[in-house]
């Protein structure tokens, strides 16, 4: 096959490209220029897609012996990922930009361009596996290395995208990937993994949002209110600085009457009101989500997924929660067997059947445990 290998400049994508070439595919390495400021550099292990990363990717491609190009998708990335990130926070919700990037950039814009240029597939360094069934269908499964599994952020890929996706690292633990990189002479073997949000290089999400959003209503400030008493406990400079379940950074100055910490329970973006209360009020037992994406054949409306192997993951590195999942018309109704804590609208709910990813939805509403 003719394969485009998306090379971020890190160790995972470099080894994935090398494995694809070793498997006999005709591989071309590409690096995605996603930043509108090409002179930016990463800070430690934060950020990605910088000049430094592009050079690391080019050197890795030279070692592997494959052609290498840089594709400028910065405008598309800004519109589909960065603007979505700002708009979602401005609406009082919590986005996952990595998931949006996979959906809109790596497996939409990149894959579409690759297919138009005559390539057959896109290979990435994600830790997940695509399996072809005996009937000819395709399934997305968790990686062998549970600690590095990235199937959650790939839960937005549809059947057609999976048919043109290669994840060469899904069967390998991360330490072995680094060992292999060193054995292949790849200089990125010991390069730190990137963390946080790539376009917020210093990791200060609140400061970045404050700079970008400024005084744009309705995020210019509001009250922090105690849920039980209705008492105004303090003021804040912008609701975008909070997320459901947040404990630190509230700056209330005095503890609750019972001495226990307070958590963010609700964010009302129009008035800017942030409601806080005890941790037990974060317990959620029902979730609704829309913007369905099926990793394989779509399930018909009215389908109910139930059983010991059906779980839902609600954060990129969060736990699995046993659940009953009902498929509505372009929505999921999820009932958790055991409550989850700190679940926010805007996050993704990814449904699993054992290790297989069934599909995903964007959380629009939650129902708390009465109390």
UniProtKB/TrEMBL annotation:
Site (Interaction with tRNA): 126, 347
Record field: catalytic activity: S-sulfanyl-L-cysteinyl-[protein] + uridine(34) in tRNA + AH2 + ATP = 2-thiouridine(34) in tRNA + L-cysteinyl-[protein] + A + AMP + diphosphate + H(+)
S-S pairs: 101-198
Any single Pfam family the record assigns to this protein: tRNA_Me_trans_C
Region spans: Interaction with tRNA: 148-150
GO molecular function annotations of the record: tRNA-uridine 2-sulfurtransferase activity
Binding of ATP, residues: 6-13, 32, 125
EC number(s) recorded for this UniProt protein: 2.8.1.13
InterPro entries per UniProt: MnmA-like, MnmA-like_C, MnmA-like_central, MnmA-like_central_sf, Rossmann-like_a/b/a_fold
All copies of domain tRNA-specific 2-thiouridylase MnmA-like C-terminal, residue ranges: 286-363
Domain tRNA-specific 2-thiouridylase MnmA-like central stretches: 213-277
Active-site residues from the entry: 101 (nucleophile), 198 (cysteine persulfide intermediate)
Subcellular location: Cytoplasm
Transmembrane residue ranges: none
HAMAP family: tRNA_thiouridyl_MnmA (MF_00144)
Function: Catalyzes the 2-thiolation of uridine at the wobble position (U34) of tRNA, leading to the formation of s(2)U34.
Family: Belongs to the MnmA/TRMU family.
UniProt protein name: tRNA-specific 2-thiouridylase MnmA
């Amino acid at each position: 096959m003719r394969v485009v290998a998306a090379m971020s400049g890190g160790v995972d994508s470099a080894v994935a490209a090398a494995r694809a070439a070793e498997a006999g595919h005709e591989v071309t390495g590409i690096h995605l220029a996603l930043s509108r400021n090409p002179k930016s550099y990463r800070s430690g292990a934060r950020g990605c897609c910088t000049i430094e990363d592009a050079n690391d990717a080019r050197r890795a491609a030279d070692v592997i012996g494959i052609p290498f190009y840089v594709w400028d998708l910065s405008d598309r990335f800004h519109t589909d990922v960065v603007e979505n990130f700002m708009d979602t926070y401005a609406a009082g919700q919590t986005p996952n930009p990595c998931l949006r990037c996979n959906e809109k950039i790596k497996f939409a814009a990149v894959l579409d361009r690759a297919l138009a240029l005559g390539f057959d597939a896109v290979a990435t360094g994600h830790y997940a596996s695509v399996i072809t069934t005996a009937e000819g269908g395709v399934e997305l499964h968790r990686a062998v290395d549970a600690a590095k599994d990235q199937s959650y952020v790939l839960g937005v890929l549809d059947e057609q995208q999976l048919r043109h996706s290669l994840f060469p690292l899904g069967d390998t633990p991360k330490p072995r990937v680094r060992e292999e990189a060193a054995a292949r002479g790849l200089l990125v073997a010991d390069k730190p993994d990137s963390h946080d949000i790539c376009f917020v290089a210093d990791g200060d999400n609140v400061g970045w949002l404050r700079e970008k959003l400024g005084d744009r209503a309705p995020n210019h400030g509001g009250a922090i209110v105690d849920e039980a008493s209705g008492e105004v406990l303090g003021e804040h400079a912008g609701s975008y600085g909070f997320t459901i379940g947040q404990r630190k950074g509230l700056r209330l100055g005095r503890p609750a009457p019972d001495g226990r910490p307070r958590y963010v329970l609700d964010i009302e973006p129009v008035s800017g009101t942030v409601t806080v209360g005890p941790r037990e009020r974060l317990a959620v037992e029902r979730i609704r989500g829309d913007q369905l994406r099926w990793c394989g054949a779509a399930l018909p409306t009215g389908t109910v997924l139930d059983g010991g192997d059906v779980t839902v993951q609600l954060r990129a590195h969060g736990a699995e929660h046993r659940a009953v999942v009902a498929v509505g018309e372009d929505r999921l109704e999820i009932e958790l067997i055991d409550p989850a804590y700190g679940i926010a609208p805007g996050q993704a709910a990814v449904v699993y059947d054992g290790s297989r990813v069934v599909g995903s939805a964007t959380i629009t509403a939650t129902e708390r445990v009465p109390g």
